[in-house]
Design goal:
- The structure holds 2 protein chains of 2 kinds.
- By secondary structure, chain A is an alpha+beta fold.
- Chain A has 3 domains: 14-60, Uridine Diphospho-n-acetylenolpyruvylglucosamine Reductase, domain 2, CATH 3.30.43.10; 65-181, Uridine Diphospho-n-acetylenolpyruvylglucosamine Reductase, domain 3 (2-Layer Sandwich), CATH 3.30.465; 187-286, 2-Layer Sandwich (Enolase-like, domain 1).
- Helices cover 34% and strands 24% of the residues of chain A.
- Chain A has helices at residues 21-31, 42-49, 86-91, 100-107, 112-117, 120-126, 133-139, 157-160, 232-238, 244-257, 268-286; strands spanning 14-16, 35-38, 57-60, 70-73, 77-81, 143-148, 151-156, 161-163, 166-167, 174-181, 187-193, 202-209, 216-222, 229-230.
- In chain A, helix 9 runs antiparallel to helix 10 and helix 10 runs antiparallel to helix 11 (268-286).
- Chain B is of the alpha+beta class.
- Chain B has 2 domains: 2-78, Ubiquitin-like (UB roll), CATH 3.10.20; 86-165, [2Fe-2S]-binding domain (DNA polymerase, domain 1, Orthogonal Bundle), CATH 1.10.150.
- Chain B has 6 helices and 5 strands; from the N terminus they run ββαβββααααα.
- Chain B has a 5-stranded mixed sheet, sandwiched between helices.
- In chain B, helix 2 (86-93) packs across helix 5.
- The longest helix of chain B has 14 residues, at 103-116.
- The chains are: A alpha+beta, B alpha+beta.
- At the A-B interface, helix 2 and helix 5 of A face helix 1 and strand 4 of B.
- The complex binds flavin-adenine dinucleotide.
- Flavin-adenine dinucleotide (FAD) sits between chains A (36-44, 46, 61, 82, 109-110, 114, 117-119, 121-123, 125-126, 131-133, 169, 174-175, 198) and B (42-44).
Chain lengths: 287, 166
Amino acid sequence: MSFGSPYVTLPDFTYHRPKSLDEVLALLKEHGDEAKLMGGGVGLIAFMKERLMSPTHVIDVKEVAELGQVRQVPGEGLRIGAAVSIAELLEGGDLKTEQAVLREALARVADPMIRRRATLVGNLCEAIPWVDSPPALMALDASVEVAGPEGRRSLLVSDFIRGPVDIDLGPNEMVTEVVVPESKGRRSAFEKFTGGSEFSLASVAVSVSNGGKKRAAKLVYGAVNSTPVRCPEAERLIEDGLSPTKVRRAAETASEKVECLDDVLATASYRKHLIKVITTQVLWRMM
Amino acid sequence: MREITVRVNGRLSRRTIKDNELLLDFLRDRLEVRSVKAACWRGECGLCTVKLDSHLVKSCLVLAVEADGKEVKTVEGISPEGELSPIQKAFVSHGAAQCGFCTPAWVLATHELLQEKPHPTQADLVEATSGLVCRCGTYNQIREAVAEVSGTTARPRHMKESLARA
Ligand SMILES: Cc1cc2nc3c(=O)[nH]c(=O)nc-3n(C[C@H](O)[C@H](O)[C@H](O)COP(=O)(O)OP(=O)(O)OC[C@H]3O[C@@H](n4cnc5c(N)ncnc54)[C@H](O)[C@@H]3O)c2cc1C
């Protein structure tokens, strides 16, 4: 029953359920600006209720077989299709120790019913500051595969997210896959603080690689600013391993250096406090 | 407009719908399955939960057209007509419903959990129902009801725990 409130009805649109990638691309070519892609629809349906989006064509990609796969490509990494739900991805067991940060972030997204519908790609493409997959993907140097009328291109998640709710994607383009590169010996973890709601008020994604000669650490903070932010000063402190002193110094450094926003959800100083807490928690767990 | 065919609790229904109709509205308004509640409309409270083919989903975040050719199960479909399932009986004996508005969703979700895991741990229960809200706060009674059916004992704990999102 609609009570006439924008929160319960959807704008008028034509629904498409293509079966192949070529069909999706043809629909995007034809309807471009007027169309929105739908993975799980969790975000899209909510945005349409609030009239933040009013597409006249909705292109559901869930039944596109080419997009429904998780593939382990030797020498390259893990390729996760746009139609793979978060629940399927977690159940498939492909996210191993190397990708622990992504597994931990996704396992805490919403609840089992929403994870059954929502996709990783949809979560990423929302690019809302507080969603949890972007920092985790950035900590893993993940990239996205984009397909469009001019062919395909690949770009890092850190470049793909341009701003809040702003991604580097043309109206006729779509994301087909997320690629998590292989990295032997990498360890990673995720932590967030939500204050009891579904919104992360601050999240942190860590990865430490010590494969071969190159050691590298990444600390990526989500939900504290309009896009995920790294903290190179704190990263340097943990590159050569962790100790209680290093954990404390890294947490203090990140809290001091990471720029935080003041908004209706939390003040900047509260976010800085949370950064210290969750950085300590996550690094302590990795020690 | 298009015609869709959905099997709801075993019965085939064919209806003409608009593409922008929610599964929630389709079930409540067109098929008059009123156990599916419309409450928050934004995927938070879970009272519109139904089983779509093999998984539970929140029907306020699903389009009706997506259910075309699929099977939907609601609380009416968990036991034969006129009979109560074990979890329904346990809800009654433990007073696990207060105002009753959320009860169909909780019964369906706990029934499905028990089908999948006959002896769920507290953590399994909290996780499986983390997308559901009971505004009266009958979490402890629900826990006791599930424990009775699974043959375990519910340790009394603060009900806030059930609300804590993992
Ligand atoms: C109650 C609730 C709790 C939540 N809790 C959390 C949480 O704890 N953590 C968290 O991170 N998120 C949370 N969310 C947000 C939710 O996880 C996201 O809305 C969801 O992951 C989006 O994925 P989807 O597949 O449903 O995307 P959709 O809704 O299908 O799409 C989202 C956006 O991405 C676009 N899009 C989809 N697929 C593609 C594609 N292949 N190429 C290009 N663009 C595409 C769509 O057009 C749309 O703009 C919550 C949401 C709700 C309702």
